[in-house]
């Protein structure tokens, strides 16, 4: 079934973490407002501690304590969330970890073998997470997210703590999966080359209390994204350095 195409409207007037003990209240987001067109790949970047994860949690509905609205054209989107840690169940196989994302008897379960093939894990289908590398575990997390066929895919630094070739290969895989089945993606990273390689649009947040300091389209074709020189040139255009 094709994903329903709806824009996402984000309006966060303010997000403040309340004071706890000696710690004063912490205003993290202020007037963060944007719309995301269906099928776009939006990267949210900005300084550490600037509120990127907080914003993603609000959009996911994990944090409801904020002033504002998140609207998916009046509907409830089918969501997938990929976190920094792959969050696999250690007592379930690779196949089972993916299948757990879907209800019993769901027709999308039939797509898992094809998805395993696409992420290069067919031979690891019956392995347990501790038997495979972190890079492979992250491929399982990608497969689990895409097999849901989400309307909205939220990703919070899913490729940190990997060596560069592994992270690069995973980014290429993500671009390919997304290109085959464009879904709306919001991807948080502080890694600028990663932002440019993946995004169709980059939102930069300022330091906290964060607001949007830059909203810029990325002008790279899918083929250009594997070309490090072209990525670097686009990075210079957007961020003024590389
Ligand atoms: N549950 C919480 N309670 C109180 N303060 C929090 C909570 N979660 C985050 N914060 C604070 O909110 C601010 C923004 O944190 P957040 O994790 O959203 O930033 P970030 O931009 O994702 O940072 P990084 O790039 O380092 O992951 C930080 O000052 C952080 O300490």
UniProtKB/TrEMBL annotation:
<dbReference type="InterPro" id="IPR017871">
    <property type="entry name" value="ABC_transporter-like_CS"/>
</dbReference>
<dbReference type="InterPro" id="IPR003439">
    <property type="entry name" value="ABC_transporter-like_ATP-bd"/>
</dbReference>
<dbReference type="Pfam" id="PF00005">
    <property type="entry name" value="ABC_tran"/>
</dbReference>
<dbReference type="InterPro" id="IPR003593">
    <property type="entry name" value="AAA+_ATPase"/>
</dbReference>
<dbReference type="GO" id="GO:0016887">
    <property type="term" value="F:ATP hydrolysis activity"/>
</dbReference>
<dbReference type="InterPro" id="IPR050166">
    <property type="entry name" value="ABC_transporter_ATP-bind"/>
</dbReference>
<comment type="similarity">
    <text>Belongs to the ABC transporter superfamily.</text>
</comment>
<dbReference type="GO" id="GO:0005524">
    <property type="term" value="F:ATP binding"/>
</dbReference>
<keyword id="KW-0813">Transport</keyword>
<dbReference type="InterPro" id="IPR027417">
    <property type="entry name" value="P-loop_NTPase"/>
</dbReference>
<keyword id="KW-0067">ATP-binding</keyword>
<feature type="domain" description="ABC transporter">
    <location>
        <begin position="10"/>
        <end position="232"/>
    </location>
</feature>
<keyword id="KW-0547">Nucleotide-binding</keyword>
<protein>
    <submittedName>
        <fullName>ATP-binding cassette domain-containing protein</fullName>
    </submittedName>
</protein>
């Amino acid at each position: 079934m094709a994903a329903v195409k709806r824009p996402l409207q984000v309006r966060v007037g303010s997000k403040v973490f309340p004071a706890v003990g000696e710690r004063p209240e912490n205003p993290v987001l202020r007037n963060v407002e944007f719309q995301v067109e269906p099928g776009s790949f939006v990267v949210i970047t900005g300084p550490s501690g600037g509120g990127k994860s907080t914003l993603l949690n609000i959009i996911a509905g994990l944090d409801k304590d904020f002033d504002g609205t998140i609207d998916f054209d009046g509907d409830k989107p089918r969501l997938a969330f990929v976190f920094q840690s792959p969050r696999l169940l250690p007592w379930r196989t690779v196949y089972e970890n993916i299948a757990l994302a879907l209800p019993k008897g769901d027709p999308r379960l039939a797509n898992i073998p094809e998805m395993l093939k696409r992420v290069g894990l067919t031979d690891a289908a019956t392995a347990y997470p501790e038997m495979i590398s972190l890079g492979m575990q992250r491929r399982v997390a990608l497969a689990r997210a895409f097999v849901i066929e989400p309307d909205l895919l939220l990703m919070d630094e899913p490729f940190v703590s990997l060596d560069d070739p592994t992270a690069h290969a995973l980014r290429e895989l993500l671009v390919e999966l997304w290109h085959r089945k464009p879904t709306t993606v919001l991807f948080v990273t502080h890694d600028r080359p990663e932002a440019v390689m993946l995004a169709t649009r980059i939102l930069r947040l300022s330091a906290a209390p964060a607001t949007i300091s830059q909203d810029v389209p990325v002008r790279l074709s899918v083929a250009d994204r594997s070309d490090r020189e072209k990525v670097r040139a686009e990075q210079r255009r957007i961020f003024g350095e590389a």
